[in-house]
Amino acid sequence: MTIDEAALGAYLEAHWTGFRGPVKAEKFAGGQSNPTFMLTHAGGRAVLRKKPPGQLLKSAHAVDREYRVMKALGGTPVPVPQMHVLCEDESVIGTAFYVMEFVDGRIIWDPAIPEVSQPDRTAIYDTMNAALAALHMVDPAAVGLGDFGRPGNYFSRQLSRWTEQYRASETEHLPDIDQVITWLEQNLPADDGRSSLVHGDYRIDNMIFAKDRPELLAVLDWELSTIGHPFADIAYQCMHWRLPHAGSFRGLAGIDRKAIGIPTEEEYVARYCERTGIDGIPNWDFYLAFCLFRMAAILQGVLKRALSGNASNPERAMQVKDNIPILARMAVDVIEKGP
Fold it and tell me: Which CATH superfamily is domain 118-337 in?
């Protein structure tokens, strides 16, 4: 996947005061949803994220929302890159895109973080916890995001959305998925009135940390962000405590977390509750099962794009095929055995 560097350079010259051409765009290897490029120009480095080509699912790949929420969060306790420019004119490079600051740090791909000391590992998890709590304490209206989503009935709307998107990209029938969808529909918790900004994909490899210390420099990948229910984010991150640490999964299941300084799921949730001033999280089984189903739906979309020839990373996209039934079975286990 390449970008018309001449067209991009001309646009940036006209719309970004910090740009000095010419520009070179090199695609990062990772990522499934929105292709991401390193931009090198006479003024330094920056990062471009764009929509993928081809026919896209409704409301997916919302780079405009990513740009808006990160721009709004600049200056809050939530660490985000500085935003430079948003281009919604698809004629420039073929799809909408935005350009943001290049944050020079490290991305941690393995949640067990074997490359750091035990104290640093503990500190990294605590700083992730603190940033998530800080996000959920931001007043959306105060940062200009009062219309970023609809408050109330979040899980009802999300379940409908992801069921629709799963069915739109379904490539084979999985009875476990049917069971999970039915159970979720029948066990929706009553709306408790909680509402906040939510990230939607809050996990360790969507963050940039300092190279030499356990400091969180930036939270990335806000495509799924909205005004929603904060328990969706904390449950989604804790889902990774349960995912396998094998194959293309990067979870923490089977790892002696206590021995290496990673908090238990219960400890992580308790610290989050302490920071946000709540007593606990009821209906934990629902939130976990919902997050597992939503992940299965996201991966099903990745698989569908791969089969249609529109995936950002086609080879890796095809590898997710076996993960979808695993996630569905894990959700069934939560439903039948409890959290």
Answer: Aminoglycoside phosphotransferase (APH), C-terminal lobe (3.90.1200.10)
